[in-house]
Amino acid sequence: MIKKLTFIALTVLLSVEGLFAQQALFSGGPQITSPQVNPDNSVTFRLLAPDAREVRLTGDFIPAQGWMPGSELMTKDDKGIWEYTTKPLDSDLYGYAFTVDGLRMMDPNNVHQIRDVATVTNIVIVGGGQGDLYSVRQVPHGTVTRTWYDSPSNKYVQKRRVTVYTPPGYENSKKKYPVFYLLHGMGGDEEAWINLGRTAQIMDNLIAAKKAKPMIVVMTNGNVVQEAAPGESSLGLYKPTMQLDGTMDGQFESSFKDVIRFVENNYRVIPKSHARAIAGLSMGGYHTLHISRFYHKTFDYIGLFSAAVMPDEKVAGSPVYQDIEGTLKQQRDNGFSLYWIGIGKEDFLYKANVDYRQLLDKINFPYVYRESGGGHTWTNWRLYLSEFAPLLFK
Amino acid sequence: MIKKLTFIALTVLLSVEGLFAQQALFSGGPQITSPQVNPDNSVTFRLLAPDAREVRLTGDFIPAQGWMPGSELMTKDDKGIWEYTTKPLDSDLYGYAFTVDGLRMMDPNNVHQIRDVATVTNIVIVGGGQGDLYSVRQVPHGTVTRTWYDSPSNKYVQKRRVTVYTPPGYENSKKKYPVFYLLHGMGGDEEAWINLGRTAQIMDNLIAAKKAKPMIVVMTNGNVVQEAAPGESSLGLYKPTMQLDGTMDGQFESSFKDVIRFVENNYRVIPKSHARAIAGLSMGGYHTLHISRFYHKTFDYIGLFSAAVMPDEKVAGSPVYQDIEGTLKQQRDNGFSLYWIGIGKEDFLYKANVDYRQLLDKINFPYVYRESGGGHTWTNWRLYLSEFAPLLFK
After folding, report:
1. pLDDT tens-digit map of A366-376
2. What is the ipTM of this complex?
3. Which domain holds residue B109?
4. How many CB atoms lie within 10 A of CB B298?
């Protein structure tokens, strides 16, 4: 009935969907595997660039040179393939990129990328340990939802995007769940924790291993002037910037009640302080510190990940920042289950966290302190999430 | 109380979150804007590459050279910035990339990218027409959910990922909605329509303009051997391939009942044929053709976008593909509201679609035919979605 074509001819024809797929298909040349995780947990990176004069590898497994990322020279073989093999790496998730004759570029053989502010980076996971927590594994998977909520208390924008993780089984039960609010740092947005932070993978794996309770995780956008992440709002496909107005003027903290109301009205949650947690990294740690003080008896679990603990009340005028010591004493007296502070030894906020702990010690404010290696990095924030989540709602 | 830091010092410190953010911050050099959409709808692309010998621009606004993408030479200024300005472009969404000394690379000033099979491409939207439908605008937004469903009828994998768009207002009502199942082509997955196809933006904008009814859109994974898109399954961060086993062996069609059951059990839907639509592109058009025949009186709205209408019953042995002409007659007699066929004049499947329409004509099977310019491209599939969705559930 229909003109006969063999199945093989058909599938060859079908292989040509769109211009760039064509390009991928017909670009020819040797097939390259990159990155390749080797049995000893070293990783080999390869790039076909016969005409390049110098190719370097940057990655967060290569020590930084002061403020600048470190890099390693790659070596070219007689086919024009540049290659570099690391020493065996700790199990983890790593970002990397190539620098070809001074120009930073992605690995064309690796579509797996993450965006950090205005920079896109390839990723590779080395398994067998911590990296397994960041991998999608054969375990029940939660659901990830991007939705919008009304924030009438925010003077800048009142429609705001939020990312919500609901645990495996949420859809098939009538159970009510505890809620963990998870806040990003400066330059981040509601995509930061789910993409850079691997929240869904970490939670799926911890819940499957019965190391964490099933919980809802709510990832907000802490930039009060933004409706949504770059590219997800009516501002269009613009270039993200680190600096935004209003991120530390008290508006995010004072309008946080809007997201709590949205979550408690739209998800099956336990609307009690013993079933609410909040944590954040860097600027999100600052937001967490203030929100957990400002909303009395609302959060029993609080996490400060590499927190920016300044400015104090003399610097910013919002009611949110008034009488920090007094309200911390109030928070202490109200009681809570966990106040967790994590910081890397090399973090530029290390000293600020020492000072903050001295204040807490002075007023007998109980907290758990976790000092890791490294600095102000997503490597640490993924680690902190994987350690903090198991402590919640016990 | 806490060591005093000025707000300015703080925000400078906070600007350094992670290695690659540091790199972005301290890389120095002139600030480049790329891409830049000009008032006359021409687009200027720029790349800082002082040491490059030749920089070319590829993009789907540049005519292809046979099977290969076309390219335009860019021009270097005295600061080492390469630049190219297109002629005024039709309002649309365009993909592009640079080729630097023979090496394809992303625009480092544009974080907005889409993946098509194993190729990542930058995107730019030219507004003022069709492109506005693909933009996030200040209209009510639907919710996009990535979740997992059980597919016991699929012999390959039984846990499968699916992307679901629910329209604005879904959360705040008790209303039941019609459902539109939207299927990708070969090399695609459950991320294809939402990312490459701009489904959420198209539906938000059409619904806001009252050009489409509020509906749920379900974007499945048509590769029956896959649990999920590359990077979203336990297979890890592998390189996607165009060819997968089983995509046209009848399993996807015969197990499609599992996704219908999941949707109808988990969302507020109208479980009737008059409130079910199905459409797909290329291989997804093939799936749509067969699913809409095979499931009697299930779908009243059917869309074939650049459909692969082969193979016929002689080629594949699944019961799904038996007696195509007889079951099409049955489908005709059962009745439906719309059978829509769209194809580009330059599509390699154009002739196959002519043949298929001849068959339909022969048996007096009613359909609406839309012939566009261009070929087998996402430019056409976004266009078809924007024209097909307004016809549904009227």
Report:
1. 999 999 999 99
2. 0.93
3. 27-128
4. 18
